[in-house]
Design goal:
With about 130 residues, the protein is mainly β. The protein contains one helix and twelve strands.
Length: about 130
């Protein structure tokens, strides 16, 4: 019985551990605030998405708080990592209305993520 329990524990650790086929992206901490042109916080909630301009398929996203704040995470096929990969990004803001319809706003300005900690202010164009 002990041998069976030991084998089960080892199998669980191997099966549930990090995947060997996927390299961890080199991410950098990104937090910020979404505001309107006049500087007032964007209080509509929703999500913010960053899509890398030069690396297809590389993106990061975060939930927008009621005070306009957000923290980005990069999703891979198997994991969620804090931060975003260095580079230039196109930015989209998505808001889900009470009737469950979705409003998507693609911002005109591109934003850069640098090595280290990043604190961004994202202004809504419209």
């Amino acid at each position: 019985m002990r041998r069976l329990i030991g084998i089960t524990i080892v199998w669980t650790l191997v099966a549930c551990g990090p995947r060997h086929g996927e390299a961890k992206p080199d991410t950098h901490k990104v937090q910020g605030k979404v505001v309107y042109k006049d500087g007032k916080p964007y209080a509509d909630g929703g999500q913010i998405e960053f899509h890398h301009v030069e690396k297809a398929g590389v993106s990061a996203r975060g939930e927008i708080g009621k005070d306009g704040s957000f923290v980005l995470h990069t999703m891979t096929a198997q994991q969620k990592y804090a931060g975003a990969v260095e580079g230039t990004y196109a930015v989209k803001v998505m808001v889900i209305a009470p009737d469950q319809s979705m409003k998507l706003t693609e911002l005109k300005k591109k934003h850069a993520i640098a090595k280290g900690d990043n604190k961004l202010t994202i202004a809504i164009d419209d």
